[in-house]
Amino acid sequence: MLYLFITLIILFLLRRKLDTHALAAAGLVIYYFPIYFDGLAYLDQSASAYAYGKTPDPNLEISILIIFFALYCSSFVGKKKTVPATAKRIYSIDERSLCMILFPITALVAIIFIPQTAGIEGKAKYLALGFGGVLIQYFFSLTILISSLRAIKAKTRAKKAKYIVVSALLIFYSVLLLRTRSIAFFPVISAFVYVYYGRRLSPTIMGPKKIIFIAFCIAILLGKAIANYLYDSTTYNSVMAMMSSSLESFSVSSILNYVYASHFYKFYLYQIPLTLIPGTSELGLITNYHNDIIKAHIFPYADYGMGGNPIGEFWINLQYMGVLLYALILGAKCHLLDFLIKHTTGALRIFLIYIAILTLLYVNRNATFTDISFIRNYCVLFFGICLASALMKRNFLIGVPRASLSGKQAINRE
């Protein structure tokens, strides 16, 4: 199984192309590599790890390989079809008016809720904010996203510095004070993908600045683990324990292994369409069955949520048929998002890349219901701000044929 997993990784690397299929493949590798490299933990009934090296369930190994292979095959479907340049349409949004709406709202959210965390240590700051934490998550992420885009496209160093400072302040507060890396990490990665999307990656493209950027992202991920190891070396006395304290891959894979080994099955996927309707979870019309099932039948003494996992959910519902269904859905999402990203530009393009990262990469540590709720809320918020900016500035560019704009006009519009 290990050799097949490594072979699929090599095949994706040989593609050397950064697109939605590459993002989905990265998600599979990042979150499930412990299954094939002795990184699974023995868990007690409170979901606490006490040793590593647990043997993975054979059905789990096969399921990951099926999804990985199906994703690789899907990456070649429809790639030979091209659209004439004159027929392509650019869908974009005026970014300056977008910033005029988004930045003041984000500043207001920060002014209102940040003082409420005074005297609270660690990640408890974020949890103590309640609904304020939700607002910080969405507005901070979108502001870092748009600021990164403006910094990329700025023509002068002064403008670049202005947007970099905005992003840096929000990243500093999110990572070092709130202890939540996802708010900062995924928008920054989206900016990197925005620059290189659709291009064939090679050593000549990856210059020193890009390597430093990648090292910075890795430092964000491993920063918590290094701090734990330095300040509590008695608890984190091994490399595996240190890495597992920071990377969710180990906990996600270990819990998923127990889901497969439990042989518990229940069908509830028919409720997924209700997730598209705002407020359904608050009204009790849908339930995070995956979390409830895992806690009740596998980890009854866990006093915290077990998160979710789409592969585990589809396995609980339909076993191998569910795995195949999830593989088809994953491939379809890759093609749809790839089409949308290629036919957009500017703020709308980087927003779609951000959605692609959430629903193709980050989805591996969320329940299906949670993932759809994330996408729904981000879309409602983003397009609501876009509508407000359009009404304010009245220069909302949408559906303008590429051939109708000269090069200079297209640049100015973008």
Automatic annotation (TrEMBL):
Keywords associated with the record: Membrane, Transmembrane, Transmembrane helix
Endpoints of the signal sequence: none
Transmembrane segments: 60-77, 98-120, 126-149, 161-177, 183-199, 211-231, 314-334, 346-363, 375-392
Name assigned to this protein: Oligosaccharide repeat unit polymerase
Source organism per UniProt: Candidimonas humi
Organism lineage string: Bacteria, Pseudomonadati, Pseudomonadota, Betaproteobacteria, Burkholderiales
